[in-house]
Amino acid sequence: MRILLTLIGSLLFITGVQAQTRDTIKLTLQQVDSLFLTNNFRLLVSRYQVRSDSALIKQARLWDNPEFTAEFGMNSWSHPKLSVGNQGQTAYSIDQVIKLAGQRNKNIALATLNADYSEASFEELMRTLKWELHKAFTEYYFQNRTIKVLKEQQLVLDRIVLAYSKADSSGSVAHADYIRLAQLQMSLKNDYLSALSRLMDQQQILQQLLGTARPVNPIMEAKQYSVPVLSEITLEQLIGQALKERPEIRLSGIDQKTAAINYSLQKALAVPNLHVGVIYDKNSSVVHNYMGLTMGVELPFWNRNQGNIRRASLQIEQSAIKWQQTQNVITTQVISAFNKFQQYREAFTPGALSAFQDSFSILIDKVAQNFTKGNITLLQFIDFFNSYSDNFNDQNGYYSALYDALNDLEYAVGAPFINH
């Protein structure tokens, strides 16, 4: 029994290090951001959309093509025969549409706003994807720290259970103690597998967002692994920055400008376009080789674009309400994210968790020593064993939630304001 207790004590703090595959990429948060900008497939597709919409500006600047019409004489109805010789009849005309009331310039302005909208949409997509990336990065990092502790405990407990199994067979330990340890082993394995499943989900998100099939191993430098402080930043400043930086504000502003220009365009479309052209008639006119200037205009008797003008007017009012809604949504999002982050930030003083963990590790070491000496029972040992892993889980869970709250706040503001 004495040998068994000594074996358990010596195995308690064996450090199990998970080997990384040869192809694993170790990346800091800054390196992840850089790889994200160049490799993310959704961003690459969105960039092409921005470029394609920008090409429509050039298209809007082009004039409408002139229309060419040719007429060839066919003698008479009773004797149809194509007659295009010297005595035959041919006529030609060219017609050019000239858009009035500034329609062309308004279409150019709309195409420009459409390109601006695509660019702002690209920025919004990038902001959202980066938020998902940072969330996956921090959750993977701290989840992996938890898994390492669970793996260490699992290796230790597996050997303890094996030793107790042999001792139980020889009758040197109580069978109930062996059953209790076996149950703890099963529970620990379930915790490990659940944590590993969540880690694999985050790994998949990281690989998809970074456009790589290679495993990604997030790392944090020593200077990064600290509790961020908002000492010189007020809530009002963050709200002001959000109302300036958020792509939704730009999108909403573009919607308002688009509605205004579209209303102006619809009114301009009520003005008939002018058709200007020339006509040549060989033998059918009052003189041979007749040349004439043509001018035409639509007569707006019934259709004066009334419906589209009314619709455009309502869209202006609608865009104004959406602008107010966007401002309200952004303001409330910043307030909520700020309060959430502050609650997590103020839950512990800087260094408190690390100091507590160091003290707890010393305590566990003493517990192990007393257990090997038989000064504490198996149930007491198991209780401290569970507390040790729970402490690591709680600490990693807190840091993960803290950095998630910071990530949510930066997402709400629309731009990073703390050097990670």
UniProtKB/TrEMBL annotation:
<feature type="signal peptide">
    <location>
        <begin position="1"/>
        <end position="19"/>
    </location>
</feature>
<comment type="similarity">
    <text>Belongs to the outer membrane factor (OMF) (TC 1.B.17) family.</text>
</comment>
<dbReference type="InterPro" id="IPR010131">
    <property type="entry name" value="MdtP/NodT-like"/>
</dbReference>
<dbReference type="InterPro" id="IPR003423">
    <property type="entry name" value="OMP_efflux"/>
</dbReference>
<protein>
    <submittedName>
        <fullName>TolC family protein</fullName>
    </submittedName>
</protein>
<keyword id="KW-0732">Signal</keyword>
<dbReference type="Pfam" id="PF02321">
    <property type="entry name" value="OEP"/>
</dbReference>
<dbReference type="GO" id="GO:0015562">
    <property type="term" value="F:efflux transmembrane transporter activity"/>
</dbReference>
